[in-house]
Amino acid sequence: MKLTKAKLIAKVKAPLEKLGYIFFKDPISSAQGFFSKKLDNGLYLTLGLTISRYMESNFTGSFYYSKTTRWAAVWDDIPEESYVRPGFLMSTEERKVYFDNENEKLCDYWWDGFDNSSVASFIEVIKLTESRLYEDRLLTKRIEDSRSVSQLKNYADEVKKLVADIEKLNSTYSYLPDKEVNGLPMRWFKTSEYVLKKQNGILNKNTVKNLASDAFIQSTIDNLSNIGIGK
Description:
This is DUF4304 domain-containing protein. It is built from 8 helices and 6 strands, in the order αβββββαβαααααα. By secondary structure, the protein is of the alpha+beta class. Helix 7 (about 185-200) crosses helix 8 (about 205-225). The two termini are about 35 Å apart. The mean pLDDT is about 95.
């Protein structure tokens, strides 16, 4: 039986929410399940799920730790270590305990989405490893010091600030999607194009979509965190 995105999300959504993650029908990323939360240090920890193309029931997950929720964005001076699968954050001894495999060096592990014990093991591995990203002071400093991360964060902050009043600006738009994507209101796309144009950013349909998604997800998490949800 083929593991689908809907079946996978149904399996992991509730236990990941207990760990503080918020589920999004992300309109942009290639993840087959998108979860994110805001940390006490103000950065975001995003978890994207991937279903195997070769093993019908298998899936894995990858963390993305940054000032933004742009899962897998590691270009320019953005630390590659921001984007990592949990097995690479574990010791050899821990992998022996959690991974049902005789290869002690195996880090890129895949779980069975139809096996409840395998799914439970995945959740335990996420719980075990997630803090190893944000407790890494050197990695956090490199993220804080990244010019590209700061630029992406500044773009999103500007969108969050302007989105409520974007219809008053009477701007013209050339890079909007034909319709709302996964419930993301059109005003987020309009504001993203406006901000990128105003700040001389790279402007095309993809950059507008990516910024709109990031700003919307950040705003949703920020608002829920302010009322104590996702903490």
